[in-house]
Write a structure and sequence with these properties.
three-stranded antiparallel sheet
Length: 160
């Protein structure tokens, strides 16, 4: 099977959009990703998948920390900046959560310490021990079939 067919099939899984961020010696690095999931409730663990060509890969290996910022519907531009889709330099400010860089306004900010890493194919899976969480009441940014999407609330029609 060819790469395009695989990518298209994987794009049929609707996901949230995250920005993964880490800090090395005061320099913040980030990238847009949708390869994120929860792993365990006890202990609280998540996993992110980072491609071998991603600049942030070595930064996370150095820092042994990262944050997952689940983007809100109004943060599509941030997703595009960290995905490299917007080439002009943009100033992005980061807040801190348990010392890790996070994006204000994200639906969820999740601070993590690396507890394990596994090389699988052309990606490294980082298991993160969650050290702190901050939530916002906002609609999430979604991605499906190569396009950004938003939730549409269904109205319930009472039956007679």
């Amino acid at each position: 099977m060819d790469d395009r067919l695989f990518r298209t099939a994987m794009g049929k899984f609707a996901t949230g959009v995250t920005v993964i961020a880490t800090d090395v010696e005061g320099d913040v690095h980030g990238m847009t990703a949708n390869a994120f999931m929860s792993v365990s409730l006890s202990p609280k663990l998540v996993v992110i998948s980072i491609g071998e060509k991603a600049k942030i890969l070595e930064k996370i290996k150095q820092s042994q920390t990262f944050s997952v910022n689940i983007l809100a519907a109004d943060q599509q531009e941030l997703s595009m900046i960290f995905a490299g889709q917007i080439k002009e330099p943009r100033e992005v400010s980061f807040d801190r959560l348990d010392g890790k860089p996070v994006l204000a306004g994200a639906v969820a900010q999740i601070a993590c310490e690396v507890s394990a890493e596994h090389l699988e194919g052309d990606h490294t899976l980082f298991i993160g021990k969650v050290t702190e969480i901050k939530l916002e009441d906002a609609e999430p940014l979604l991605f499906y079939s190569g396009r950004y999407r938003t939730l549409v609330e269904e109205s319930t029609i009472p039956s007679n």
